[in-house]
Amino acid sequence: MNVRREYEVLRRRFGVQRWWPVQETPDVGAAAFEMCIGAILTQNTSWQNVEKAIESLRRANALSLHAIGSMRLPRLQSLVRSSGYYRQKAKRLKTFSRFVTERYGGNFKMMFHQPLKSLREELLSINGVGRETADSMLLYAGGKPIFVIDAYTRRFCKAHGVVFDDYDDYRQYFEERVPKRTRFYQEYHALIVAWGKEQSKRKTAR
DNA sequence: TACCAGGTCCTCG
DNA sequence: CGAGGACATGGT
Description:
The protein has eleven helices and no strands. By secondary structure, the protein is mainly α. The relative contact order is 0.14.
């Protein structure tokens, strides 16, 4: 497929998405942390359910490294319950928070100051953080130029006759065909999600 | 009622 | 490795 052209097609069809402008928020650290939490909670789960969980965390004043790290597990489980797999996810949130606390002395933002490649490796070493989750964190929280591949992206590719076996092949496919710019990657992925949602809506309407 | 949703990890052969 | 299963809620 013509990856550049398909971007324009999506852009005309769905308009500007501008997901989570973390870099333009007053408290960049807080917004980035929330983005990372969202990335874990959304694993194989609808965003709608994730939003409820994030709202619960916010109301409980629990959207911080320290809060999640020190909270009792059952309490955290009940706060993220609506996101599904809630025992597993509560544990993953804790693992992630503890990792950052130990590795960076609780200075969450410092994490994104190291070289991209080693940072990605590091994220992947955390239990509960796989490639899509790591890349979402890098792209949307860290503002790093990494193209995120998810179920929608694979479906989008397939619809255009492009199929690979491996996750990283998809990533490479996009990255070598569009300008290496964070904003562009963010917007493109968001547009693919918009496309994917419309597809599933249409399917159920048939 | 059944099926799906922006994955990841573990186990077994 | 690689296939298969577990994890769980909320919406349609």
